[in-house]
What we know:
alpha+beta; 6-stranded antiparallel β-barrel; 4-stranded antiparallel sheet; 6 helices; elongated; disordered N terminus
Amino acid sequence: EHGDEEAEGEEGLVVLTQPQIEASGIQVVALGRGGGGETRLSGRVESAVGARAAVAASVGGRVERVVVAPGTPVRAGQPLAVIVSGEAATMRAGADAARAEAEAARLVYQRDQALVTQGVVARQELEASRARSLAADAASRAAAAEVAAAGSPNAGGRVTITSPVSGVVGAVQVTPGGFVAAGDVVANVADPSQTELVFSAPPALAAQIAPGARVEVTGMNGSFSALVIGVAADVREQGGMAIIRARAESGPLPPAGSPVSGIVVAAANGEALTVPADAVQTVEGRSVVFVAGDDGFRATPVLAGRRAGSRIEILNGLSGDERVAATNAFLLKAELAKGEAEHGH
Length: 345
């Protein structure tokens, strides 16, 4: 009996059965490796790549109609404005003429084929007509492609500017009666449901961040976690800043344009041991973790290092093979304090 009392009262040991551990919700985890340091970033919510478009006029002309306004929802292929262009009319006429020439050259080639079999036309003439037909077909295809690139104007030179993406119209840059040059923006369209987080970061930090890293984000709607999906160094010329693109793990993001702040964990050079932040408890002024063993949990003093996100580096005190209490480890701390109080009494 005296030996049992010494085992139960062994300093730093909390004896719990497996059912007690499960009932308390104490999670036992293995040690991790990596470490790192936290860096605060500023950014904003932006439309995802491919979910926004600056729709420009393919040819210069007069704006005949504007069929959308800011805030109008549109589908891909829906008209935004109609432009009347003399250049487009000339282009369409040229394409029609090239198609007619190609058809005429094809008919001449077919006729020469029939005459060659009758011996009326020499084979050299047939080969020449075939070459002319092929050249005319090529010219017709080139003209048709040029017309398609210009927005497929009709014979009157009217070009319908359409949206390449589905979304909501933002700024409209043209008005009826105005003139636009080729390349001028007609309207901006963005899909508000497809957004991502874009943070500015020093290039040195961006080199330490890889896709898949977690970012703890704080926005107007509270805090949430996001995963890095892309890192590009020296993209923004002003200040030589890099960008870090991230996507929320779950739930919708705040509206596009909303400012956010984030905490990202940059990888450390070494392979430091790490534990969940909940695993490190303070007992009598010392940092300890509760190492799981056959006889319960033993409070083991450790030297804690930097906190990186939800994990803390362990610089000394553990070998790396241990399993420690993480979630609800504070219950072990309370049980340890209770046992010591009873032992002292």
